[in-house]
Write a structure and sequence with these properties.
The protein has 281 residues and is an alpha/beta fold. Helix content is 44%, strand content 22%. β8, α8 and β9 form a beta-alpha-beta unit. Bound molecules: ligand C2E and magnesium ion (3 copies). This is EAL domain-containing protein.
Amino acid sequence: QAKLAGGNTLRFFNADMQADVMERVHLEADLHQALARDELRLHYQVQVDDRARVTGVEALIRWEHPRRGLVPPGLFIPLAEKNRLILPIGYWVLETACRQLAAWSQERGKEALTISVNVSSVQFHQPDFVARVQHTLEGTGADPARLVLEVTESLLMEEPERVRNIMLRLSKLGIRFSLDDFGTGYSSLNYLKRLPLDELKIDKSFIEGVLDDPVDAAIVTTTITLANSLGLEVTAEGVETEAQHRWLLEHGCEAFQGYLFGRPLALEELALGEQASATLP
Ligand code: C2E
Ligand code: MG
Ligand code: MG
Ligand code: MG
């Protein structure tokens, strides 16, 4: 069957899409059980400084589905945002990350790492979000200054005044903010000025092109300059090759994340020594 969608877009609904919809329905039913059945895992991907020393990690959720194996967040986070399961899931992520932060403070003292946690706008707009975050920090004993909340440009665009207020309250607790996937959304530069942001993360789609696409290269150098002049840190996401790493260092980027330094890994597999696997140019 064909269906006319708004304007002059013709959309076909075929067997493939039917299967897709069924798949999503099953996945959604299973997701309701995932927390109770203890199927969610946090993986951690290292972030390194200009000397390739590990300074922190980003927490990335995975779902260990009993039949499907490891389901990536791109497949179930959008579902969870739609049916609001993101609320209990998000609190589980925050709690797990904060417990890990507290453990590292005990083990490593001043060498303790930061943990960056992705937050969705559904979580952010809960009336008790600030109180719950504060409660989690207190309950786990995690140092708020080592917790980084990663927000997206679209989160900032929804009710900007409200978002600003929430961010100010959280940053008063000592929590830091990072703007994820920078350059892919529609954020106004005005937000950068008005919001208590600490870091920009340059999206991996731009990093991918720095060596052979002049437009990507220009976007990346402009972002680095912008961050420097606003006093923000800047992290390059999705760094996969030595050549990209070298280029970024030469253009003034001092923080990196990507497969070159390590894939997201379970805690037990994570190597948090002084030097990440990549060698310096
Ligand atoms: P993100 O926050 O931008 O995370 C970075 C993504 O890039 C991760 O995908 C990571 O595995 C991937 N990545 C890292 N280095 C490289 C690289 O060198 N090359 C390539 N090609 N990819 C790289 P992942 O883990 O599949 O997560 C996808 C997205 O799902 C995240 O994007 C984030 O938006 C969302 N997400 C993950 N965990 C959570 C969570 O706990 N809560 C919420 N709300 N969203 C989450
Ligand atoms: Mg950092
Ligand atoms: Mg992120
Ligand atoms: Mg990102």
